[in-house]
Amino acid sequence: MTTAATTSTAGAAEAAGLLRETSLLRFATAGSVDDGKSTLVGRLLHDSKSVLADQLEAVEHASRSRGAEGPDLALLTDGLRAEREQGITIDVAYRYFATPRRRFILADTPGHVQYTRNMVTGASTADLAIILVDARNGVVEQTRRHAAVAALLRVPHVVLAVNKMDLAGYDESVFASIAEQFTAYAASLGVPEVTAVPISALVGDNVVTPSEHMDWYSGPTVLEHLETVEVDHDPAGDVARFPVQYVIRPQTAEHPDYRGYAGQLASGVLRVGQPVTVLPSGRTSVIEGIDALGQSVRAAWAPQSVTVRLADDLDISRGDLIAPADDAPAPSQDVTATVCHLHDTPLRVGQRVLLKHTTRTVKAIVKEIGSRLTLDDLSPHPEPGELVANDIGRVRIRTAEPLPLDPYALSRRTGSFLLIDPADGSTLTAGMSGEAFAGADGAVRAGNDAPREDGWDF
Amino acid sequence: MTTSTEPTTGPADASGTATAGTSADTTETASGTAYALSHLDTLESEAVHIFREVAGEFERPVILFSGGKDSIVMLHLALKAFAPAPVPFALLHVDTGHNFPEVLDYRDRVVAEHRLRLHVASVQEFIDRGELRERADGTRNPLQTVPLLHAIETGRFDAVFGGGRRDEEKARAKERVFSLRDEFGGWDPRRQRPELWQLYNGRHAPGEHVRVFPLSNWTELDVWQYIGREKIELPAIYYAHTREVFKRDGMWLAPGGWGGPRDGEAVQERRVRYRTVGDMSCTGAVDSDAATIEQVIAEIAASRLTERGATRADDKLSEAAMEDRKREGYF
User: Fold this and answer.
1) Which stretches does UniProt call biased (Low complexity) (chain B) (predicted)?
2) Which end of chain B has the lower number of beta carbons within 10 A, N or C?
């Protein structure tokens, strides 16, 4: 009997489901150990059968050696020896699991101390964020911080998981009151959509399988929501942005004149025949062809990696941006942005940095730190002088060359940037151009206008 | 309307020049699904973006190529990323001296076919010169670090592509796509740069280099699905075949000049295949009848063991074996 044949019929059926190409959802979790976040993540991995026998054996072994009775699912997300020995966590760990309906990448961001920078990192690529609250405590300061980060990073979907419902008597009114309070707060930050789910991660209620204790709840379980939430929003409604990464010029006998601009669509759709502007030069041409990794196509959309050919022989190099001629951003040397400072040395007014935006890195100076934002209550502190690690603040930056930045609200990829220390190359700060939050009415306040002192009017 | 006439990025046409044909009359649809990308399309696109970032920002990149499936997929992605131009990187193989002959044959064939440059760092030569000592257990996997770092230094490579995936192992789960290594090749997990959006910071001082992992977000199943979709050829030992093996530490190892079997280890013929391909002394075969890519994928999807748990003795050394090797500069 072979190993392959000893797997059960059920296993084979599951396998058949996993063979199809599905879609990919990137999501992040926010919540402390006390909220049961590790247990929730462990439960998602375990109950979706993503934990394999040798991993579970390792967890059981580790649980026993630490004196625990049963396997501690929180240990599934435990990391490095350095973390175990020093009781620290190293920002983001990525977890991978799949169901027959979808592939998932989970950015697991533990840690109390460095929380903001960890969550900002995890949320930067997330399509969805799960924010956990303890049903007994409701919406607390930390919950508001997590909501603020999700709103700031413009995570498209937010899930509120009200955990420990078993300890709150599975009481519908407890859940309803927390969900209502949170949804109102999130809406005030411009979060477009909140899905609230009552769960018990410890017992397994509504995580993967529907709870038997809360018949008053008819919505999806956490996993069902993750499997079905719409991730492919229509890119045709977005501005087209194509940062040039690399110029492909084979100069071979077969392709003596081929000249293609390689890149990944940051946003929107490009089509053959479309008039385009190349920034920062402002020269215009028409898209002659699009090569999508081995086949010629009529159109390409974000986040496809393609090679674009233009009708005219322009001088284009890495760092340039190709955009529709009628909808190109205006390059500017003045950047107004909300930033999260990441590095242990502070960011100061007057500091010389490198600014990395899409495929272009330019010299820049921090001209002004207008305010620091307290994430608990969103109160601004004007003129803080510097930002330390985990601070969120409003800054004005002057760049050595004009950059075609979009408002982050318009495009996450062409509205974001990093500040880098020119001396040692460290990543210092993550920046989002334009206004920090959408208005309470959901309208986007875009543009590079200077921050108002009273700019946090929610 | 739910159907779309937008061309999709399906398997590459063999000629590489196929056109989308009928899509001249492309119609707009209001449905977002018209522009959907599958999970493989998304992962492929991300990996190609990473290759092109490195080509744009580094002077002397090199691809670590073992002839294993992950490095084969990396090379396939690199070929697609720069077509119709050749891959602008050389390959580097760390040869333990205990490689499967089928894998070395495959390596040489691929290098010739795509006219690539290949650098080989030989563990055997370091042993012969007395700069490395054979371990008591005969495994050479941990011995690869010194020749690897030597090759990076003498080749003056500033970016080194590795096929590591975060789903493989918990130390890898915390590694960045761009992973800065100090002048000793060491990895310090506490001094990693935060990685946000798709902005990769590859700045480094002279003598330092950056390890780059384009397959960071792929799982073993993704790799196999992609191999199937793209019809990528692999060394034959990845598929079921009959082979002489013997049991050591619960794994089926293949006899060879590397030092097996010892007395009392009985050799028998079994129908097996390999889930990973590394040094013969510590890479185990699994019992399998999976002779086609479809059968392999079905087997992987149904497996209840991780590939490293099933086939790698070196990771069973301790709870932190991989972490320790990475700190010393391992892959």
Assistant:
1) 7-28
2) N
- Point out the least confidently predicted range of A230-234, B116-120, B215-219: A230-234
Nearest CA in chain B to A344: B191
How far, in Å, CA of B234 to CA of B69, rounded?
A: 7
- For chain A, give every domain's residue range: 20-228, 236-324, 332-433
What is the mean pLDDT of the segment spanning A330-336?
95
Contact A14 B56 (CB under 8 A): no
Q: Which of residues 355-384 of A touch B (CB under 8 A)?
A: 356, 358-359
**Averaged over A351-366, what is the pLDDT?**
98
Beta bridge partners, A30, equal A131
Domains assigned to chain B? 40-220+321-327 (3.40.50.620), 236-316 (no CATH)
| Same topology between domain A236-324 and domain A332-433 | yes
Q: What is the pTM of this model?
A: 0.88
* Token output for B127: 């042993």
- Peptide bond before residue A402 is cis, with ω within 30 degrees of 0: no
Summarised one tens digit per residue, pLDDT across range B124-157 is: 888 888 888 888 777 777 788 888 999 999 999 9
Peptide bond into A384 cis (omega under 30): no
Of residues B18, B74, B85, the one with CA closest to residue A246: B85
Q: What is the CATH number of domain A20-228?
A: 3.40.50.300
- Give A176 to chain B, closest Cα distance, Å: 32
Residue B261, preceding bond cis, omega within 30 degrees? yes
How many other CB atoms are there within 10 angstroms of residue A166's CB atom?
18
CA A5, CA A211: separation in Å to the nearest integer?
35
CA distance A214 to chain B (A): 33
Length of chain A: 458
Q: What is the pLDDT of residues B98-111, one digit of tens each?
A: 888 899 999 999 99
Q: Which CATH superfamily is domain A332-433 in?
A: Translation factors (2.40.30.10)
pLDDT, tens digit (0-9, with 9 covering 90-100), for A419-436: 999 999 999 999 999 987
ipTM associated with this complex: 0.89
What one-character-per-residue DSSP string does B24-60 give? GG----S-GGGG---HHHHHHHHHHHHHHHHHHH-SS
